[in-house]
Amino acid sequence: MIYALLGVAAAFCAFIQWGDEIPMPHADYNKKEAKYILNVKKADEKEKFEKAVLNRNPNGYMTVEEYEILSAPKDKMKEKVEIPVIPTPADMVYVPQPAYKIVRYNNPPGNAEISINDSLYEKRQLNAQGIVSPDFKKLVYPSVYYYPNSGSTACDIFVIKLDNAVSNKDKILTANVVHRYSEPILSTDKTNDNYYTFRTMTPVDFSADGSKILVKEKIGNTQDGIWKTTPYIYDFNTKTSYSLEDVRNAIRYYWLAAKDMDLEDKRWDIYPLGFSQKNPDWVIVNALAYTGNTPVNLGTWAIHSYGESPRLISTQNTTVGISMNGYKLVKDGVEPPKIMKKEAGDLRRIERQNAWQKYKEDKAEVKELEKSYKAKVKELNTEFKESQKDYDLRKKINGSTEGTDTLEKYQEIKEQQAIKRQQELERKKAKELRDLERKRQREERRSQKSGES
User: Fold this and answer.
1) C-alpha–C-alpha distance, residues 422 and 237, integer Å
2) In terms of DSSP bridges, do strands 311-314 and 296-304 run parallel, antiparallel, or are they unpaired?
């Protein structure tokens, strides 16, 4: 018994010392490791494939890196805005759709006013109707703010760049505040310490070349009426604004000197009418005094667009030519039912065709992803088989040769294998060429027979 134990101990010591020469009781660990790595790569490719199929449509499943890429800041000026379309319910045959037309904005002259409704007091902000430049490249609109702590309002004038790739009507329909320039071109005082004070700015009209815009600022009190109207000019070329306050001072000075009437003791105001037809660089305003039941005309006045040289045109109700250069969009009834029914039928057909086309494209996309996935798995399997053959070859050579002959033998066998692969490729290529030539000859014979018949 003791001799048997000693023999086992001696064999174990020999196994530890000369383990490379004793056959391993288990399979080759290098091959096991290679097989494990292959399975890991296959699992990764499968996960990529399933994730690509899942991400065909946007969803909330994503990594932190993917979320950061999608949430990166974007240029809002380049975003596309579709024309709003009211969907037609399935149980209704006809839904009236409004029709629009483009008209002159400053018609009649000086009549443009901001219309404030009750939604301002709920939303605290209201975007009023805009005015489009004569070249249809920009839209200018006022944004009114309400401060409930004092019941007062303030206003900014913003500019939206219009899309040049659509019609003039679609340019206005697709104008959206996301495309506006971040900074306003004109602003009222934002202090709201005076209760019930309102400050608004209303676009009056563009100049004939669209380089300037006339805006009137109105300051007043909701319980006391309008206190003062001041015209302003903004020059888009120089990005500079000009106050036309001097025309008010000239009106006061004239009536004080001519009639000894101090307008500061009266309730009076001016009404900017627009740009002059004869002199496009001049702005025409009208002045009225409210001294009784009937307003008193204080004359028609002109001032240069840079706020210089105010002058009296006439103290009578004479007609002065006012240009109308800006445009706006107004509703023009509704689309006729026949047109809407035909468009609805066409739309349903288009939607069915689009749905079928989208289904086919989706199936093709999944098939392409699956094809790519299978090709990658096949490539991994091929690489694995080649690496295992190479490993077996190295192992076989190491067991049958010694010294420097091992590398030389390995290189010789690999060169022979490469030659065989090249010969096989050349045979396949030659076969394909022969098949193409036979096909060409058959087609020529068919064409000759068809020509003879």
Assistant:
1) 71
2) antiparallel
Question: What token pair was written down for 274?
Answer: 């627009």
Q: Which helix (DSSP H) or strand (DSSP E) does residue 439 occupy? A: helix 405-452
The string of DSSP letters for 243-258 reads: E-THHHHHHHHHHHHH
C-beta atoms surrounding 205 within 10 Å: 28
Alpha carbon 446 to chain centroid, angstroms:
57
Tokens at 298, concatenated? 């204080």
**Residue 58: per-residue pLDDT:** 65
Tokens of 339: 């047109």
Angle at 336 between CA 333 and CA 339, to 5 degrees: 135
- Phi then psi for residue 279, to 5 deg, are -125, 95
Calpha distance 345→351 (Å, rounded): 10
* Phi, psi values for residue 283, rounded to 5°: -110, 135
Query: If you count them, how many residues does the chain have?
Result: 453
- Contact partners, residue 242, CB within 8 Å, separation at least 6: 232, 233, 234, 235, 305, 306, 307
pLDDT tens readout for residues 386-431: 888 888 877 777 765 555 566 677 777 778 878 888 888 889 888 9
How far does CA 111 lie from the centroid of its chain? 36
Rounded to whole angstroms, the Cα distance separating 284 from 303 reads 7
Instruction: Output the pTM of the full model.
Output: 0.59
DSSP characters over 153-214: EEEEEEEEEPPTTS-HHHHHHT--GGGB-SS-SEE------STTEEEEEEEEEE-TTSSEEE
Residues of the chain with pLDDT under 50: 1-26
